[in-house]
What does this fold into?
Amino acid sequence: MSTLGLVWEVIRYRPGRFLYCFAMWTIVHGLPLAFGILIAQVFDRLAQGSPVDETAWAPAIIFAVLAIGRNLVIWLGDIHWINHWLEQSLQLRRNLLRWLMEAPGSRVVPLAPGQAVSTFRDDVDDVLEYMENWVDMGGLLFFGIGAIVVMASIDAGLTTILLVPLVLTMILTQALSPQIRKRRRAMRESTDRVTGFIGETFAGVQSIKLAAAEDQMLGRLHRLNQTRHKAALSDTFLTEVLRGVNRNMSTITVAIVLLSAAGSVSEGTFSIFEFTLFLTYLPRLTDYMAFVGDIVAQHRRTGVAFERIRSLAVDAPDEELLDRTRVPLVGDIPDIDLPAIGIDPLRKLEVRGLNHWFPDGGEGLEGVDFEVERGSFTVVTGKIGSGKSTLVRALLGLVPSDGEVRWNGKLVEDLASFFVPPRSAYTAQVPRLFSESLADNIALGQRVARERLREAVQLAVLEPDLERLEMGEQTMVGARGVKLSGGQVQRSAAARMLATDAELLVFDDLSSALDVHTETELWRRLLSQRDVTCLVVSHRRAALARADQILVMDQGRVIDRGTLPDLLERSELMRSLWAEEGDAA
Amino acid sequence: MTAQAPSYRATLTTYLRPLRGRVAVLGVLLLGSIGLQLVIPLILADFIDTAISGSAVAGLTTAGIAYLVAGILNQFLDAGASYLGTDIGWSATNRLREELTEHLFTLDMGFHNDTTPGEMIERVDGDVTALSEFISRFLVRLIAAAILLTGVIVVCWLETPAMGLTITIYVIGVVLFLVRLRSIAVAAAEEERETSARLYGFIEERLAGVDDIRSLGAGRFTMNRFVPVMRDFYTRTTHAWRKRILVWVSANTAFWAGDALALIVGVWLTLNGTISVGTAFLILQYVQLVRRPIEQVTQELQELQKAAGGIVRIDHLRRLRTSISDGDEVLPPGALAIEFDRVSFAYEDRGVLDDVSFTLAPGRSLGLLGRTGGGKTTITRLIARLYDPDHGVVRLGGHDLRSVHSASLRESVGVVTQDVQLFEATIKDNLTFFEEQADAEIYDVLEAVGLGDWIRRIGLDSQLGPGGQGLSAGEQQLLAFARVFLQDPGVVILDEPSSRLDPVTEALLATATERLYAGRTVVIIAHRLETVRLADEIMVVDAGRIVEHGPRHELAADPGTRYSALLAAGRGDILGDTRP
It folds into this structure.
């Protein structure tokens, strides 16, 4: 889709309101055409000399009324424009987030969350800023063409000469403004580096003191500061150059008018009307030309911004990103329920030839086969980096893969949309909580009955923590759950998973934040109280000892599988994993 | 405000004095530019009068050229002033940032534990940047704008008192009006920042948790949760923007009313013969000329208040002094004895160590066992002198730590903590803390801790993400070991990593640990018995007291000891975090 097509699609979101704003701004930008004529008339009549021409009052008073009244139009336009802008910005952001959260297929957000947010913020703003130009466009053209026609009708030759610096302004602005943006970005980046460094420094001030590294850190800060200083100067320099272009061009046009006027005075054809009219029009005309130049530059930038939005959404069709469904800004927010999936209760899960490659060429998965029977407990184990997490993530469709997965013998087409509650649920190795209450985190936006919530909390061995937390389940957990300990986060995530009542439970390594007692207790409660099937990544004896089946992984392959006694007998790797874990015992 | 005046002046003079050459040049540029801005409208006015009268025609071409030269020259002076102002602002405040950071380093951990890194960013960068803006703008914009306004008023009074009076009343009236208006806009801007932080915070958290959400089928619920967040953003931002529009439109109305006023006064004074047509044009030009400086004056007055807050906070920080004083004794190289002599210590609210005494001979290793919160970590913090004891003495190699020079102490004591602090920088910079060091030396050390293969694969110059992103927990831990090896201290404190590592990686760590023991006095906080298998001595700490201390094999052999009870329980890896 071309950038113009994009703008058209965006405008169509609420065309009526757009048209209204367009009309208002056409009036606002167009009125100065009349201002020039009125001011010129005032001076023309004043210059009549004696007897004084009292009619000079009339244009002055009309000017006063229009100039002040114009602000009312600005206000009427703006007050609706902000609603339009905000609503459309939310529309685009919602569409993008919705695609990332709900679309079928496996979905790896291609950027770190912090960077992705800047696409949500800055790139969407870029698109809208560009659209804003189209609101101004009518007025700009009206004034620009009108002023040139009026001036040309008075002095065609002079107007032609004046067009040269005016067009130059447009061209130079258009060439320089992307440069300025580049410097702004460099400035922002160098600022981020300084603040990032200060943040890291004071987060790690203990290690710095312990390593007596204060001087080195100051040296580093000094260098980062200098980079930022240079970036700031470079930014200021270019900004001033651009401003200089505009103002000097304006000066040059006025000077041309002066010199031309000097000629006509000596010929006796000088007209104060013409003179003041030109002098009033020219500065505004230069400004508008610069504005048009900036729009040309923005046109390209908007293309790039939309490209970034597209690449964040990876495979989203444009219709999804530009979906015109209104953002529900008023009215009740309906509760939604899970669509009743006609679920075929799990009897057997079969995985054949599951492959995954990391984009950077790191080791992925190679031809993984296994089966999981209903009610069984399967443990995936192996060294760090052997592909354990990747295996479960590929199975659940969280990372792209190929191979066959069958549920009760039926081939699963889209793993990502298939492996969700009530079929399966998952707890990541580093689970994410959101800055809401603990209860909301566990319910994850669904209506969950209190008893279900209690039960999930109890199964996840979270109830002793709830007793200790002052606000209990209403405790706000802070950004990403920072107010909880690592173990509490992990158990809350387990409770979140258990609240879904799924058949297949996938745990990616609970051991990193749970002690053995708690983990053992969790397995005991879970297996005694529910009819569940578990797929667990772990190297803990607590899990291995109760496994019906263990998959031993090495370098992205399942190198052995079986029961614990069998594996201990025949697998060297299994022995070393088991032995080291419990050696002190 | 009066109380703050001295610190303003002190701060400004301290940081601007070294730059006084540049400041002087800046002043010249500004005065030149102001002069030209006053002169240019006069050229136009004169031009009109001459043209109308039809006399002295020859001068008109000269006037045209004068206009061109003055206009372009003014632009250069103005741009130069802006550039120089930026330069001065950053030169001055970068120094302030560095000095402030240096000062903060000298403060003790009591201070740092009470402040968040976010706060420090706000002080060292936010407040100081506000100050930089203040310097560059206060000098360049505010003062210049005030001079320009004064200049316009003076020229108008010289033309004719009626004109002078008009422009004086106008300028003062609009400035007062705008200053009042802008306070509305400030509150609105604050609100806008908050609400947009919430919107993007929501998005950022959900993007970070996209796997959790999708695997739990919660996408639609998440989007439902997004609705109130969007509404809140919409309502509050609309509210804030409306205020901003009101301010902007009001200001614009005032400015255009100025144009209208100028035209009407011009007509009136021309018609009654007080002024010429050119002068009437001059009034209009001057009214338009004062727009920008009026905007600047009112805006900078606001910035001034913000910078004032910043200066006060910075000043407060600079006055803080550490409670840990520095000594001048130097510790000898090599392994040192550690001695606690009746040491008690309490953090602000709770007592942690109660009359603790023990000694550890040079070259011996000690395993610290006990429950979380029992005081193990505090013992190690006192050895590293992150805190001073409330009572009693901590000695290293016979020296009271309070009389030891801090640099010497840092050289002698190396610490590996559980959470490894890594920077967004190369691996090499992370190991050396941005100091130059021979690569060969670093490779040797990485080899020693078992990261040899790994580093040859990825290279010393590979970049780490923020907070060590891109490294496994095991790799981070080994890098922390490498840091201590590079430092080569006589005393090593080791807070054992918890069970995040798989057994095979742990075996790798154990090898590195053994090498670290050789020729050093070592204190290890152990979470599992496996780790202290190599320790010479075992000490069990509970509720701030030593409940058991002795050679490991003796304690193990005696069935009545806590250590042997733990061994018998066979659950070594839970010892440190035994739940009550």
Notes: Chain B touches chain A through 151 residues (CB under 8 Å). DSSP finds 19 helices and ten strands in chain B. The first strand of chain B starts at residue 338 and ends at 346.
